[in-house]
Amino acid sequence: MPHVITQSCCSDGSCVYACPVNCIHPSPDEPGFATAEMLYIDPVACVDCGACVSACPVGAIAPDSKLTPEQLPFVELNAAFYPKREGKLPPTSKLAPVLEAPVVHRKSGGPLTVAIVGSGPAAMYAADELLTQPDVRVNVFEKLPTPYGLVRAGVAPDHQHTKRVTELFDTIADKPGFTFFLNTEVGSDLTHDELLRYHHAVLYAVGAPSDRRLDIDGMELPGTATATDLVAWYNGHPEAADLRVDLHTERVVVIGNGNVALDVARILTTDPDALARTDIADHALARLRDSQVREVVVAARRGPAASAFTLPELIGLTSSCDVVLDPADHDSVLAELAEATDPLTRNKLEILSTLGDTTAPVTRPRIRLAYQLTPRRITGDARAAGVEFTVTGGDEVVEISAGLVLTSIGYRGTPIRGLPFDADAAVVPNDGGRVIAGADPVRGSYVAGWIKRGPTGFIGTNKSCAAETVHNLVADYNDGLLADPVHRGAALEHFVRGRRPAVIGTAGWKAIDEAEIARGAGVRPREKFTSVAEMVEVAANAPAPPIHRRVLAALRR
Ligand code: NAP
């Protein structure tokens, strides 16, 4: 009865270190880790101890006897990662190597103090890494009243298992030395230079807050939007709450076929009664209940073997939705399958080859995966009426009618005031997380996550990414390369509250969290607030911790 890793794997890697027999691969120190679509348990070496189950932050691991029917393909998928050995144990019975935690050299002036900007996975993993030692303080600044970035506002609401990683983040936020400054925007409420007066270093983990724009005619028409806007809208991001999403159309076209495109296609075709049991935003649920969408076409410019979505997400999609292919695309799948040698690509193609085709009667909203379509222009006069594509590599033009066109061609980083920016790669130029201007490091400035390496990978990919940055930051601190802060201790709290009276701390966030869970009434995991003003009000009524009371009293004097 070996254990099996399933679709919600976040590649956090904690299971690797928990496993006493090193049977989970690729591990963070192996070359394939950065690009792995998920991690895999070796069914021959697994001793079935369950240590990985407790270590996994997203509940993605179960014994093979306790899988749901939709999870059964993962038994074969885990096993297929390993060579066939006819029952013989592989040479993996040693403890997995554990990454060395950075060792901070204690200094007389006070603790190492780091500001982290952003509160998504890269930020929280960086905080965790820094707080492995006692003599460190971490202050996390977030412009929204709620933390955890794309885990709250990006992970699809029907992927609640993945959102469970927030339990790990809550534990990190409760560590001594950790302080939240939520509802506070660095770059407008506070500047980079001001933060440096209170910290040894500022580490930006702000993600890629914008999206890549498709430069074709018609993108300005009503009825076009980006998939990332739609994701923010259905996840209740306050800045997307007013997005006008008209679902009074039979067909939606999504351009691009990465995991975001699959998320959006799944949400648009899932039964709203099922979504009503998730934390989807109320405004989105109401619109989906009223939706007339019967088909979502996910259009890729290349062929099936080059699909950008990952295998676990394809398995999840095909086990929960009606997914079909055009007969011509079926032929392409079979032709590519005959040529493909890479096991991962073969696996994807094999699943695609089993899909029904578009000639089947439509019994419920369905998803059509379409290939070799390069977008040429959005058609329509007053609003979008469809997309004109050229068949990739030829002159043939194909039009697919649609009342809503979503581009899903990737996220994009945006410049950070006061730091250099590489506009081509849309990242802050860096060397292992140290911000650089040309070849020179920018003193006290660091990056982690998507703003460091671009918008790729999964939640857990940010763990090793953040660890690398923290190692370099601590090395610079130990080498005396970071300036001591001018102000220390409670002065920061006083300063921030002076600039941003509506700053929200951990107590305020907990009040918002508890209120949302209570609004869910046991039927939904939570009912999200989508208005900043409402959240600020809930947070303001939270009992202030003693330090806040002292600062407030000082401010009133
Ligand atoms: P992505 O995986 O980079 O996919 C981008 C898609 O856009 C590709 O199909 C790409 O096609 C297409 N594209 C790019 N430029 C185009 C153009 N000019 N015209 C037409 N198509 C174009 O991006 P994403 O879906 O936004 O995902 C971002 C990251 O988040 C990924 O690492 C993803 O795995 C991760 N993510 C993970 C999950 C999950 O694990 N559940 C969920 C969401 C996101 P080409 O391949 O031909 O360039």
From TrEMBL:
Looking up Pfam families in the UniProt record yields:
Fer4_7 (PF12838), Pyr_redox_2 (PF07992)
EC code(s) of this entry: 1.18.1.2
Keyword list, A-Z: FAD, Flavoprotein, Iron, Iron-sulfur, Metal-binding, NADP, Oxidoreductase
Source organism (scientific name): Mycolicibacterium gilvum (strain DSM 45189 / LMG 24558 / Spyr1)
Q: What reaction(s) does this enzyme catalyze?
A: 2 reduced [2Fe-2S]-[ferredoxin] + NADP(+) + H(+) = 2 oxidized [2Fe-2S]-[ferredoxin] + NADPH
- This protein is called what? ferredoxin--NADP(+) reductase
The keyword NADP is annotated on this UniProt entry: yes
Top-level EC class: oxidoreductase
- Which SUPFAM superfamilies did the record assign? 4Fe-4S ferredoxins (SSF54862), Nucleotide-binding domain (SSF51971)
Listed cofactors: FAD
Residues forming the 4Fe-4S ferredoxin-type domain are 1-29, 37-66
User: What GO molecular functions are on record for this protein?
Assistant: ferredoxin-NADP+ reductase activity; iron-sulfur cluster binding; metal ion binding
Record keywords: Iron-sulfur included?
yes
